[in-house]
Design a protein that fits this description.
- The chain has one domain.
- Helices cover 39% and strands 13% of the residues.
- It contains six helices and seven strands; from the N terminus they run E-H-E-H-H-E-E-E-H-E-E-H-H.
- It binds zinc ion (2 copies).
- One zinc ion binds next to helix 5.
């Protein structure tokens, strides 16, 4: 079995919410596998044996240092993934879903008050505190190399796609069974995922 590239960690969430997060991510996995992205990306729950190390890394309040510590914890607890280049290794990504009033969410909002739903740092760690599917998908796609498609000044769209999920406050998860995302981000995600070899 292929090792997951993205791990999710439901932090202080009730059981029904944990199931919902899992269902959201399974759906994203299925949508990534079909056009337009058409890439396999395995998303799995963080093993409980890794929780202690990851939790310790998440205590760091400086967001840059936090992402670095999470990267260290992930490579130490999970191990790395082989990549196309013989001597390079990929660190598995982590998305943490926590309640909106959680201290972890508060530390993100303190630094980035505009990050109303969640935040991705250094392509390794995403923290999502919005309960919706779209916010979760948007941040996970950042972990797969996608970039924002909105202007930081006025939040207006910067790509041509009418419903790109990387725009500000995206409105739909899928359009006729397809992930709504612009060609530039499709390329970025493909490039990122093509690094993984089985
Ligand atoms: Zn974003
Ligand atoms: Zn876009």
């Amino acid at each position: 079995m292929v090792k997951p590239f993205v791990y999710y960690y439901p932090l202080d969430l009730a059981e029904p919410e944990q199931c919902q997060v899992q269902a959201y991510l399974k759906r994203l996995e299925r949508l990534l596998a079909v056009p337009p992205v058409e890439r396999h990306c395995s998303i799995g729950r963080l093993p409980s044996s890794a929780e202690k190390g990851v939790l310790a890394a998440l205590q760091e309040t400086d967001l840059g240092i936090r992402a670095m510590k999470v990267a260290e914890a992930m490579s130490c607890e999970i191990g790395t993934l082989a990549t196309g280049e013989a001597n390079t290794r990929l660190i598995p990504r982590l998305v943490v879903r926590c309640p909106p009033n959680h201290p972890l969410a508060q530390t993100c909002l303190k630094v980035y008050p505009d990050a109303r739903w969640g935040l991705a740092s250094c392509k390794v760690l995403a923290v999502v505190y919005d309960e919706g599917e779209l916010a979760l998908w948007h941040e996970v796609l950042h972990l797969l190399g996608a970039k924002d498609c909105y202007s930081p000044q006025n939040s207006g769209p910067t790509c041509e796609h009418p419903q790109c999920i990387m725009q500000y406050e995206p409105k739909v998860c899928e359009v006729q069974g397809k992930l709504p995302i612009c060609p530039k981000n499709i390329e970025r995600i493909r490039r990122e995922l093509s690094q993984i070899t089985d």
